[in-house]
Amino acid sequence: MRDLQMKGLTEKIELLLKGLDKSKRQELDLAEVGSRLRDFQTALDGANLELKHLGAHVQKNEFTKILRDHKHTLKELKSEYEWRKASSDKNQLMDGAKAPASAADMTTADGLMKHGLDVQAAGTASLERTLRVVHEAKDVGIDTVAKLDANTHQIEAMYDNLTAIDTTLARSTKVIKRMARKMATDKVIWVFTFLLFAAVVAIIVWKQIKDKESKSDDSSDSGDTASGGGN
Known about the structure:
By secondary structure, the protein is mostly helical.
């Protein structure tokens, strides 16, 4: 899921960066790219945290390679974003420093007044652009803080779940050991019970055999006595 999330962010960021040259809202697009890059970084950090809890998972090496590739991709996208942002800031400064298209005549009072008004208008426009950039950065910052807070709660919940799982596993292990000991005890009891039953059966059989032998001896003695009396 993290892999699919980061692949989707990569495609979105690359599309935004490619469209910057023809975009009429470069500042907004750059702000969106910055937000997507922060989402990318958050997803990568979350994936690294999950990877640490995998233990000896059979696919851990494969997951590590995937995260390494995403980290390299994020580094390249950040570099291009910084270059684009620096170029955009430079262009804005150059636009603010350009002289008015219609240069005023500096030798007359009207020309001086017109030049002053042009400079004032250019300064006002530059301040308005700066203020707009500040507001956009503020909005991006608020959105980033909210996302970081949500991700923090998500990571804390994941940690709590992992702790609960470890506790459950430990409890289950104790129960299984207790059951194994009980089964071993039950086996011993069953063995002794079987031996006792076998002993009882043996005694009964032996008793019956002895009774039969006694009766047989008595019958023999009675026959001998009768024969002697006849003689």
